[in-house]
Amino acid sequence: MSQDAIPLDTKRHSAAHLMAAAVKDLWPEAKFGVGPATATGFFYDIALDHTLTEEDLGKIEKRMKEMRKKKLPFERVDLNVDDAIKYMADEGQDFKVELLKLLRDKGSTAIAKETGDEAVVGEGVDTISFYKTGDFVDLCRGPHVDHTGQVGHFKLRSIAGAYWRGDADNAQLQRIHALAFDTKEELDAEIHRLEEQAKRDHRKLGKQLGLFTIVDEVGSGLPLWLPAGNVIRDELERLARIEEHKAGYHRISTPHITKGELYEKSGHLPYYADDMYAPIMIDEQEYYLRPMNCPHHHMVFAHDQWSYRDMPVRLAEYGQVYRYEASGGLSGLMRVRGFCQNDAHIYCREDQAKDEFLAVMHMHAMYYRMFGIEDFWMRVSLPDFEDLGKYVDDVAGWKKAMAILKEAMDESGYPYEEVEGEAAFYGPKVDFMIKSVVGTEYAISTNQLDFMATQRFDLGYTAEDGSKQPVYVIHRAPLGSHERFTAFLIEHYAGKFPTWLAPVQAIVIPIADRHEDYANKVRDTLFRAPVDTVHGGVRVEVDLAAERMQKKIRNAQTRQIPYMLVVGDAEAEAGEVAVRHRDHGDVGKFKLDDLVERIATEQRTRTDLPKPE
């Protein structure tokens, strides 16, 4: 087969075998788990007494390239399953023996589902296919390239721990991750993307910029927002309050814990119990930390009597929720156990549902474009009618809700894809997918159409004819959670927040001690200036550290402060500041009123201005 005709997944899987062959050549005692292709390359799990290092990766990669150059054939050999077990046992490959026994006894291995490695699954219990590459022999159904010269271009990237079959009770192996592509240009592009991704990692930048911290004394997955990070939270929440007010939302506040009966009524306990924390006993009753805000909002809606003229009713809250997340799944602000949602629920008539759903989608798009996010699309999650066990059992209700949602999606003009089996238990939903500047895809927020809440909570309104009619409920969170959205923004901007979001917008840098009084005067003027921030003025500091001016400027650049205001004798005499901008460098001297106007414009429009002429 020609090089160009070989599927990339086949090359990647063959490259995994090549890596295993190189490891076996260097460490003959190595025992091998599984080695599947991945979305960008491959990995292999290996048991080895020697702890692999970055230096070892270089040795393995060098040996792989030597073997690639030799164009070693991939030779298929078929064995009876019992002979295969004996062969692997004689080779000391305990993990392979375990897989072979599963094939013999059950006809397949569960390992494919656990690792995504379809290639490991055998085709039957009688005959097992093996592939030999150099001195390495592995059970595998293939297909593979003809020889090692066809595996393409690869780069070994990292070493991590992995439990055999994903079970912490099993042996811990060493997993070597690698990249693999058809061309060197594609490989280099992916390496560059990963390097850029590492530079933008919100966990690294969050620590560097002093935005948040997570400490053992408080608990994993429970971030503490530091003053600088809380500025971002405050500005985002203020943005949402303004836009929601313009869109006719009413703000409410609800408690963080609730009696268990409410979650029984809402359906969260039967459907969502695994994601909830254990109950707290208060006065011999079970209370739960809330995993969702919706039941509380339903109770607020149910508090009043509503007419058809009152519809729709839009209730909004930045609500704190708590959901169980396994320790292994926690990641900075992206995956946490406690988070604050930009939540709201819209209660509307059936004839209003499409337009309300559409308006929410437009709100999502408006926010994303404000942040310079143009690459977004929707994933429409629908139920699997073959498996309704995890959903409300009302096929007619599902079909009506799906028709409303699909009509709204088609009318919106936004790109979307449909996915079966991922709907919320109470209705279809739309996840808003965005792509970061380094190509990472995020499900950043959601919009859901609920036809079940009206039944469970008896939610309705009085129609024109006096009858009580059920409402549709739209669950929406355009800005997601503070935690996840801020993590995205940190990486999106690489820590260089636009002026309106910057924790510190300006810093005054006196050249010498004698300029400190004027520096403080500049700070006070900016602090009280009519700039429409959440704090009511420019967020400004003075650097009075006993350091040279250039060091202070470098410190401000490291902190990604947009405006550095240098003041000396000339500036004090003229009532000016010499402005250095984070992105534009030195931009000249400004009167304070002119500087205030510039920052106020950036704050009001939420857009940074170009470099002054």
TrEMBL record:
InterPro entries: aa-tRNA-synt_IIb, aa-tRNA-synth_II, aa-tRNA-synth_II/BPL/LPL, Anticodon-bd, Anticodon-bd_dom_sf, Thr-tRNA-ligase_IIa, Thr/Ala-tRNA-synth_IIc_edit, ThrRS_anticodon. Residues 177-204 form a coiled coil. Zn(2+) binds at C294, H345, H475. Its EC number is 6.1.1.3. It is found in: Cytoplasm. Belongs to the class-II aminoacyl-tRNA synthetase family. This is Threonine--tRNA ligase. Residues 201-498 form the Aminoacyl-transfer RNA synthetases class-II family profile domain. PANTHER family: THREONINE--TRNA LIGASE, CHLOROPLASTIC_MITOCHONDRIAL 2, THREONINE-TRNA LIGASE. It is an enzyme of class 6 (ligase). GO terms for cellular component: cytoplasm. Its cofactor is Zn(2+). It comes from Marinicauda salina. Its main location: cytoplasm. SUPFAM superfamilies: Class II aaRS ABD-related (SSF52954), Class II aaRS and biotin synthetases (SSF55681), ThrRS/AlaRS common domain (SSF55186). Keywords: Aminoacyl-tRNA synthetase, ATP-binding, Coiled coil, Cytoplasm, Ligase, Metal-binding, Nucleotide-binding, Protein biosynthesis, RNA-binding, tRNA-binding, Zinc. It catalyses: tRNA(Thr) + L-threonine + ATP = L-threonyl-tRNA(Thr) + AMP + diphosphate + H(+). Pfam families: HGTP_anticodon (PF03129), tRNA-synt_2b (PF00587), tRNA_SAD (PF07973). Binds 1 zinc ion per subunit. GO terms for biological process: threonyl-tRNA aminoacylation. It comes from the Bacteria. GO terms for molecular function: ATP binding; metal ion binding; threonine-tRNA ligase activity; tRNA binding. CDD domains: ThrRS_anticodon, ThrRS_core. Homodimer.
